[in-house]
Amino acid sequence: xxxxxxxxxxxxxxxxxxxxxxxxxxxxxxxxxxxxxxxxxxxxxxxxxxxxxxxxxxxxxxxxxxxxxxxxxxxxxxxxxxxxxxxxxxxxxxxxxxxxxxxxxxxxxxxxxxxxxxxxxxxxxxxxxxxxxxxxxxxxxxxxxxxxxxxxxxxxxxxxxxxxxxxxxxxxxxxxxxxxxxxxxxxxxxxxxxxxxxxxxxxxxxxxxxxxxxxxxxxxxxxxxxxxxxxxxxxxxxxxxxxxxxxxxxxxxxxxxxxxxxxxxxxxxxxxxxxxxxxxxxxxxxxxxxxxxxxxxxxxxxxxxxxxxxxxxxxxxxxxxxxxxxxxxxxxxxxxxxxxxxxxxxxxxxxxxxxxxxxxxxxxxxxxxxxxxxxxxxxxxxxxxxxxxxxxxxxxxxxxxxxxxxxxxxxxxxxxxxxxxxxxxxxxxxxxxxxxxxxxxxxxxxxxxxxxxxxxxxxxxxxxxxxxxxxxxxxxxxxxxxxxxxxxxxxxxxxxxxxxxxxxxxxxxxxxxxxxxxxxxxxxxxxxxxxxxxxx
Amino acid sequence: xxxxxxxxxxxxxxxxxxxxxxxxxxxxxxxxxxxxxxxxxxxxxxxxxxxxxxxxxxxxxxxxxxxxxxxxxxxxxxxxxxxxxxxxxxxxxxxxxxxxxxxxxxxxxxxxxxxxxxxxxxxxxxxxxxxxxxxxxxxxxxxxxxxxxxxxxxxxxxxxxxxxxxxxxxxxxxxxxxxxxxxxxxxxxxxxxxxxxxxxxxxxxxxxxxxxxxxxxxxxxxxxxxxxxxxxxxxxxxxxxxxxxxxxxxxxxxxxxxxxxxxxxxxxxxxxxxxxxxxxxxxxxxxxxxxxxxxxxxxxxxxxxxxxxxxxxxxxxxxxxxxxxxxxxxxxxxxxxxxxxxxxxxxxxxxxxxxx
Lengths: 536, 356
What we know:
Chain A: GO terms for molecular function: ATP binding; chromatin binding; DNA clamp loader activity. Helix content of chain A is 46%, strand content 11%.
């Protein structure tokens, strides 16, 4: 750890001296690879890709001398025995071959096909583009890294630089004329240069650009930045494949793949879109086993004990297809000297082989991914309430309420728009709509915050309990209806009413004037047209 | 070509057809140099706006009748732009803030500020204040009403406010106490009949007495509605006959059909269809309280005596809830569901007693 810190400090100094020296005044973006070893493009490259950590004890004097010697020094070190404490324990679990990946083989094959295609047309059209999307922890980055290694690509990743002031010393001018470099410019130059020039110290000749960390300017709607232009430029000048990785997000505003990559843009640049799914629990189980065997390796044995199978199972359930999260939980629960994790029982009916069977699953009590459910899921639970043997609701209304307490109004509106087809008897509808109405009145009470949550609870509980025998079947979900009162008067009708029309409110016009004025106006136009006919 | 309603609208206080004593009082009010904020209240179509315009003419002369309409744009604190249509002359400005919905507060404040900050350029022979006419003041939110109260006091030197409302019950007491209330009652039937007759005479038509009576019945003592109805029936059939058809308000017809559908079938599926119809009415701009009232009237007229009381009880409950809620459709639907339920029970009991 200490070595790393020193590297940081030292490199910062070296950058300063660089910017002062006239030969390299240009500000270069700071790039770092995933494994957190540090490189500056112009001067130094550490061998991060080998996965070996930097040795802890190293004399400072030597590091300050010429870089190449340091490098050779490192290489010598790397051949020695592995150190006891890993800098990043996750590295020891990282997949190295495509067989190790917990991703569905189809998706791996898709990405491999794309890379093969890149290699094939590499001479003629080097600037291929690809977009990987999927939920967090679905193995998007891991798959890319493993396959890039397989094809001999060196991954160069864009990391948003930290704002640092660049001192602009021109001739005899006093410094103090500092400015902060534009992220967009830095991003542009990364795209065009990193793809073109190879590092002096890398043996691999092929490079692959990775953008996972989108510059904020691109995401800001107010900024007039054209991402499309950037890609246009890249597709004509770029020299290596470019991969974008975007994690799915629930809200549209945050969804990068939706906002930055519209369909016509994807079509224009032939961007290959591969969308990953959350990892299936069977595959996850398998990889958990693999992790456990890694833990049993001699160099790790000192650190880990073997977790019980129930703990592993509950980790898999709690992670909900997020392998990274599962690994973190596994790591924590199998460290030596830590008591067993308490688990919580879950009653979930698991559908298997066409019929439902009851299985008790458990999840970790203290940790585990926050179980957030989507709107559609929750709607299903409210509209098709399930009861267990004791006539108790399977999904408690309180939990549903909790997950939607930030937007109660929206949820109640959705329930209202969709509840009717699920009811058989008007008597049950009465009690459901009665509670929905009560909820609406409560939600409108803005002075007391807790009231809205109570309202939501009443609505959810009311609809769930009212429905004794829900109608099942395919029913498309409808969105709540918005009422936009349009002014319905045509121009002729407005003219007929005269200048006073502007003073009549839309509702008033609709109730008092509309129907009569319409008939009078239509009659008038008839008369007018017949008159003009006669004139002709 | 203007509608009869506008063509034969009295322009001066002296020429008003009914409530003549009140007109005299208003004339006396204008003789003084100053006058307080006014609040005209009374049912729809009773002649509130007519009276206001007459009053303005009495004060400022014929200049108030040169009207122009313009669209004013206001920016809310949340940077939303709202457009409100206004009708104005050199002396007054008429606005209907209810079109701005929940942003009416901004409209009220900004509008009054704009008007009140400019003084009349030419003072001799004129009043030194402008008049702002707010129509449908009872549609103002509480927020806007409180804002109005403050601005009323602040700019009393340069502007007067005339509010026209249907019912004072929805106006906060603070505003009620700051205004001189003037009640404009709906004209009685003989008054409407005579107005209809004189209108027809001026148009060169003869109006059979029976037809006039029927129009009055149908218009529910709403003079504007009566005149529009008469003109629409004239358009339909030129020389009047005693028993010709009188056009209805289309939303009332629609509501009547809805009510008969409710009575024909009581299932959740039907309720969904009814909901669609109610949505249609709401998007047309028919206010929910009118829908509610019309629906209740139709249903009560068409059901058995034994469930009438129950229906009204539920109607009262849900109407009250609708006022405190935000989604009107919830409560309309709840009422329909309740009615369906009790009606269905009534029917099944009927079948059972028939069996014995």
